[in-house]
Amino acid sequence: MSRRIPSKAIMTAWVERCGRIEFRPGVGFPDGALPLCCGTQEAIRSALKKRAWNGRNYAVPGMSEGMSDQRAFECMERLRVNLVGQSSDLVSYFSGMNGRDV
Question: Helices then strands (H, E): number in the chain?
Fold first, then answer.
């Protein structure tokens, strides 16, 4: 089980439909995107650098805008499952949401 990440340090990574991955401080993501994970900036960067850096930006491996929504979602889920659990500073979006002070 992951330790609690301080609410001031938590960031959320999300995926846009084109496959690009963005992350910002806090728990939340923009409309039209899906949450990937939450964690510290260092943990997110480190995990994404290993699995999702394409030389220009972070992107879901194998995902493209032209593929069906179902296949794109499967690519994103495969990445999410591989990321979460790599570090105690990286958790699922829902764990991050439940851990924040409301």
Answer: 3, 4
